[in-house]
Amino acid sequence: MRTLALLISTTLFAPLISHAAAPTVNGTTINLQANLTPITTAANPAAIAKLPNGLKLAHPGEFTVGIAADGAAPLMVFADDNKTLVGSEPDIARLVASALGLKLRIVPTSWEDWPLGVTSGKYDAAISNVTVTKARKEKFDFATYRKDLLGFYVPTHSSITTISRAADVAGKRIIVGSGTNQEAILLAWNQENIKAGLPALTPIYMTSSAAQTLALQSGRADAWFGPNVNGAWQATQTGRTHLVGNVDGGWPQAAHIAVTLKKGNDLAPAVAAAIDGAIKDGSYQRVLNRWGEGIEAIPASEVNPAGLGD
Fold first, then answer.
1. Could you tell me if 234 and 12 are in contact, meaning their C-beta atoms sit under 8 angstroms apart?
2. Which H helix or E strand runs over 288?
3. Residues near 159 by Cβ (< 8 Å), separated by ≥ 6?
4. What pLDDT score was predicted for residue 295?
């Protein structure tokens, strides 16, 4: 399995900012035009003091962050120019950069490119909904900034009312991203069901949101399983799906999303301190709240915590 490998993907379409009706994600109405206004935090002397001596940044005086442009709203959204990335991930990057007294440089990338980009020094960090795992900690350092929460979404006409445990997916056809943490959970649940004599589930691998929507609405798939904020956004945009259950991304343990940094360059403690300062002054919660991610807030950033597979 590629469960603990470097590849993980979100598969919902990342729409352009438009003047359509404002979506409501996890109870928060998102005003996309208002969210273009940057949220920053003051330079944090304690965080700056933790910057390692002799640190070589990709661009002097700048914090260069690779953000996967093939991700999904509200993590990232293309602005009207179809080039500028906005969303919760760029906002977190801005908080870290401003706290460290650096200018932010965002580099749109692909999910497949960020690992090499970080290890080669092309980016100082990747902020792309990366979950901390045991395998990834062998190659990268991490500073957490959000809980990893997954969601099961079904068509609004579905008779399925809840999915929260292995037995609930027995015999079901579930859309899931290949190589993702959610796939690992589904496959583990499937093995549990098979041992219990329950019907096997059928994973359905798709990368197109249009194909996913068609599969759900036509009855060729029973549910979609992926990052909760993405599912919530898609549900509000289409009105065709709704949430029937949440699962921790590191099931059976909690998991966390983290700023991903080059292994051994000692930048992670400074980034964690920058995030802690933003949590303390409220700018961190403002960022998560305005993108409907407030339910995934953490009380403090951790460096290289226990992750999936530990």
1. yes
2. helix 283-290
3. none
4. 86
List helix spans (H) across 121-257: 134-137, 181-195, 209-218, 228-238
Identify the CA nearest to 307 among candidates 158, 139, 173.
Answer: 139
What average pLDDT does this structure show over 175-201? 94
Residue pair 234/242 in contact (Cβ under 8 Å)? The answer is no
Entry pTM: 0.82
Per-residue pLDDT tens over the stretch 104-144: 999 999 888 999 999 999 999 999 999 998 999 999 999 99
For residue 13, which amino acid is it? Answer: F
19 burial type by CB count under 10 A (0-12 exposed, 13-18 middle, 19+ buried): exposed
Decide if 69 contacts 108 (C-beta within 8 A). yes
Residue type, 270: A
Select from 254, 236, 261 the least CA-distant residue to 296.
254
- Cβ contact 131:78 at 8 Å: no
- The pLDDT of residue 107 is 95
